[in-house]
Amino acid sequence: MSRLALRRQVSFRRKREKGALETTMPNNIDQELLVEILKRLAVKLLVQCRCVSKSWYFLISSPSFISAHTRYTLESNRSTKFLLRHYNWNSKKENYTLHPDDDKKGNSFCECQELAFPFKSYSQYFEIVGSCNGLLCLSDTYATNARTIILWNPTISKWMTLPMPNVNLDHAYMFVLGFGFDAKINDYKVVRIVYGMGDEGRKVVAAPKVELYELGKNAWRNVNVSKSLRYVTSELSLQVFLNGAVHWIGYNPSGAYNDFGDLGLVLFDMSDEIFREQKLPESVVGLSVLDLSIGVSRQLLFLIQYNRKTHSQWIRYDSCCIWVMKEYSNVESWTKQFAVNLNGGIGKALGLRKSGEIVLVASNGELVTYEVQSDNVHHLGIKGIVNSFYMDPYFESLVLLVGINGFSRQPSSCNTATPSLVSPDYGV
Amino acid sequence: MASTDDKVILKSSEGECFEVDMAVASHLQIVKSVLEDCEGSSDKVVSLFIVEAKYVAMIIEYYKNYVELKEKHEEGGFEEKLKEFEKQFLEQIDKKELKGLVMAVNYLNAPALFDVVCTAIAKHIENKSVEYVREYFGIVNDFTAEEEAQIREEHRWAYDGVNDD
């Protein structure tokens, strides 16, 4: 029985025993009940409702309400939209758009709504590290070894630039980032993995230095890696956050070649702050990291196995297969689910719609959807650089609502600031 | 025909009595635990103290249908049929009464109906103005005009396309 229900029952019994009973219902809904109603509201209305009264302002801005709302949104699974990012050569613009994710097929994808993007990348476009509960983690390389890392909530137009990380190696081979949520302490974390260069030239050392950023503390701290690791996470691989852990495709650096011959799954548990490793299906283990990608759809991990065009000097794919891990953590449950063959070649597979269609970028940079049963391809008229395409279910949340946009957030005491102290500042 | 052993009497705040099947009443967690406490006693009257008769009637109507539909659609389709019924059920209830109903349901700890009523209230206020929300929940605005303007300014985008009622 929940604590709330238990308390209610105890108070009911006490009232019965004492015989001292209220005779009418209270006139107004109490705060506990109000939370139950408000957590069912959309983000936009909640932001408006902050000016209902002071008590509503504090309630809606409180970390406990924001996490109750996020949890409810997650559990009720109400995401009906996709977030799509692409960079277009002609407009030289990084576009973030929302598209319906429903059972309707084909063209309904094109009805879109553009999100204001408040940043400018030093290169063409930001690297999207990952997303979690409505927050996107963006990273921008502006100098060797130096990166701007931003947490951005596009729904409420709030963001936070992370402080500079601590770990810097003189002979760093690569930096890999992961983003996720620690349910135990109810906080968002960014993990930064720094790999050093091996003695014999360019080879990477499998024992990385690891540091972790916690949003609540707004600081980085070092994490000890006690376990020896077989795989190195690849900076070329995307990461996904699922079941409390960040997942990457990794490779064994002591293999004959640097990036292929022995692939595996690398996990970093955001709560326990440890690495775990898992095997991949036998037939993909021997691929290059360039030919394997990872994703998540409806709480299931999937792999995209790209098949290269044989007579091509460049890396070009003419088909791909999608593998699904039907039971989380059970290596035996990886199943080859779909095979996609596009005339003209595949640039990148992005994910699955609720309608069952697969969303892909063709080699010419055009976004298409592919119906597996009918083998139908819908051209969606959106074009961009193949690698700039990113797609994710869109999730509305109030995370980062409190505090001003900028380089460092006020410590959590700003949750109790009076409204008159809140000064909007978009000058970053 | 169920025997009287399977019945329980629920008494509203006005003292009005409702004879209800146990299968229905046991969905109210409070009633269930009170009856478990008094097992063996012949007293089958449970006083709901502060809950008004009109809300007791609504709650009973909901769970009576819930139990019947569950029995009838054991093989499947229960959730769909329940959704249909919930729609009709909510249509009969005045929007102001939803507030009283949610307090009653919360007090009696009846999870399925609680979710339905909370969601109905949330749906009702979606796209309503801040003024309407204040009036609906009976809340006095304790912000000064300047403070309120400042909060609105902070997230101006959120106030586009809102109904005036």
Automatic annotation (TrEMBL), chain A:
Residues 29-69 form the F-box domain. SMART domains: FBOX (SM00256). PANTHER family: BNACNNG10540D PROTEIN, F-BOX DOMAIN-CONTAINING PROTEIN. NCBIfam families: F_box_assoc_1. This is F-box domain-containing protein. It comes from Erythroxylum novogranatense.
UniProtKB/TrEMBL annotation, chain B:
Keywords: Ubl conjugation pathway. Pfam families: Skp1, Skp1_POZ. Pathway: Protein modification; protein ubiquitination. Coiled coil: none annotated. One of its GO terms (biological process) is jasmonic acid mediated signaling pathway. Residues 113-158 form the SKP1 component dimerisation domain. Residues 7-67 form the SKP1 component POZ domain. The keyword 4Fe-4S does not apply. Involved in ubiquitination and subsequent proteasomal degradation of target proteins. Together with CUL1, RBX1 and a F-box protein, it forms a SCF E3 ubiquitin ligase complex. The functional specificity of this complex depends on the type of F-box protein. In the SCF complex, it serves as an adapter that links the F-box protein to CUL1. Belongs to the SKP1 family. Part of a SCF (SKP1-cullin-F-box) protein ligase complex. PANTHER family: SKP1. This is SKP1-like protein. It comes from Erythroxylum novogranatense.
